[in-house]
Amino acid sequence: MTISSIKQQRLSHAVQSIKPSGIRRFFDMASTMENVISLGVGEPDFVTPWNVREASISSMERGFTAYTANAGLPELRYEISTYLYEQFSTPYDPEAEIIVTAGASEAIDIAIRSLVNPGEEVIVIEPSFVSYAPVISLAGGVPVPIGTKKKNGFKLTKEELEQAVTPKTKAVMLCFPNNPTGTVMNREELAAVAEVVEEQDLLVLSDEIYAELSYDEKHYSFSRLQGMRDRTVLISGFSKAFAMTGWRLGYVCAPPDITAAMLKIHQYTMMCASTPAQFGALEALQHGREDVDRMVTSYRQRRNFIVKAFSEIGLSCHLPGGAFYAFPSIEQTGMSSEAYAENLLKEERVAVVPGNVFGAGGEGHVRCSYATSMDSLQLAVEKMGAFIERNK
Ligand code: PLP
Fold first, then answer.
1. Going by CA atoms, what residue is nearest to atom 4 of ligand 1?
2. Quick one: pLDDT at residue 19?
3. Cβ(127) – ligand 1 distance below 6 Å
4. Model pTM greater than 0.90?
5. Which of 172, 201, 283, 359 sits CB 3.0–4.6 Å from 126 for a disulfide?
């Protein structure tokens, strides 16, 4: 027996079955190079507004350094409840239906582990955020991808969902506005999906972390649809809209029975989310909404710029309705998305993420985050244009 096979034996089968994130490989490569313009990172380029940082600092100065309630500070849950109702018309009871988590990442994990039994299938709408399928596998579930299509603007259709459902299907994982495509789905489009959910008696995990970053129409929350509230786990957080990625703060809302189940896992694995971060989030919800509007206006301008600029250099790109990603097609270059991203990085020092790392339907595209300065965006597009010319 080799040393590596002996070492492998000590690891769980579950962890051996999942692969490290494909995004990391590109970051690692880019980090060894100088003067790279990065369109790779999935986080805001804004620093968290000062009043939020100050509220957190002040909470520590005042000595609030102990654990909070497992589900989170009661006043923060109350503010989350008010905020969700005012912004998205989604009423959730702060006592029984909301848990404050260590980022939306933890929310995804405890939601999946609360609902999925070994062997049960969870449909994942791809291209998607990279954590869903591995977290489902770690819970013993089976991720079943649906690759959405460019011709449908990467929206999920009723027919696609109907075809993917089997007797083992337990739930569907949705994410709109989407990472990496930026696609949004409106009320009518979601209602068509909800019909299948109802007919097939499914649950829905709806990751709406980019809800505030919707540029053309107001975000419509899946749980607002008739009959869907009792079937939906709503996942969100402060990372994106409030520019708080490093704070690690999110939340999850669900009917009381599912919330109680998630709380059991949360209390044993996390105890509670970070106390100073919760005080910051409280301030963000109470006094930070104008800052969110300001950031959204800036992302919208950058989205409009990059989509137009891509079309001028011959990259076809649908108009992303939300989040801060453009997902242009690179098919005409004849390269795979991995080869395109690698060559672009080496030759032009521009980092983008190959679409294939986001699962089915992602090949032939690259994800470009426009949460970076206008100057960097301008330069990146010029360089991408030169790269296309050279590789014609
Ligand atoms: N969900 C989606 C769709 C994301 O894009 C991300 C982060 O990129 C997350 C969840 C994780 O967010 P958090 O920082 O709150 O853990």
1. 129
2. 87
3. no
4. yes
5. 359
107 CA closest ligand 1 atom index: 16
Q: Please tell me the predicted confidence (pLDDT) of residue 38.
A: 92
Q: Is the CB of 250 under 6 A from ligand 1?
A: yes
Residues 130, 23: contact at Cβ < 8 Å? yes
CA of 248 to the centre of ligand 1 (A): 10
Tell me the CA–centroid distance for residue 322 and ligand 1, in Å.
Answer: 14
- What pLDDT sits at residue 1? 66
Q: Identify the segments of the chain with pLDDT beneath 50.
A: none
CA of 90 to the centre of ligand 1 (A): 20
CATH superfamily, with its number, for domain 3-47+290-390 = Aspartate Aminotransferase, domain 1 (3.90.1150.10)
CATH value of 50-288 in 3.40.640.10, 3.20.20.140, 1.20.120.140, 3.30.930.10? 3.40.640.10
Asked if residue 148 has its Cβ within 6 Å of ligand 1, the reply is: no
The finding on whether 42 has its CB within 6 A of some atom of ligand 1 is yes
